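Its record is set out here:
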Amino acid sequence: MSENAFIYIVDSTDTIVSVSDNWHSFGDGNAWDGSLRPEDVIGHKLWDFIQDPETQHLYKAVFRRVRSGRGSRPIPFRCDSPVERRFLELLIKALPDEQVEITSKILRREPREPVRLLEADTPRSKDLLKICSMCKKIEISPGQWAEIEEGLFHLRLFEADEMPQLSHGLCHQCYRAVMEEYHDSKTLSKSVDREEE
């Protein structure tokens, strides 16, 4: 298996039943803590690890599509580490017995100066900062998103002793880009309008 592709499989109840052998290296590259080791992931619902409603909605829509026999195009996303921008695509396909295989494939990497906001062991304040699950931009004001470095400068967080806690979600641009494939425009519009209220 390629070191740039990471696979996990969920069963018909969206419980994780297996992960690829290189899961450890992927987690280490992301500075994940021990709670996301294979032995702690297998047997748990996928939704234990994807808690924001927008991203759950996206995954559930894609799962419905592939389980009904329709294909899914690759979905671009970012999975940055503290020292790297990583550009990936998400490939989702149906397996027998309503299982689903999810492959994350790294397309390219860009080194950068370490970003404290993404380090697992950095001191955290009680403040929350929303980060897009797909593009990794951060929300610097309601509805306004920026690349991490630009956003940290705008929010004056480079000089902060503690970083805010990260709350995951989807920016409107990423949500629209992915969901347009899975919903008719009327459904999509209603869903986005509810979020903006």
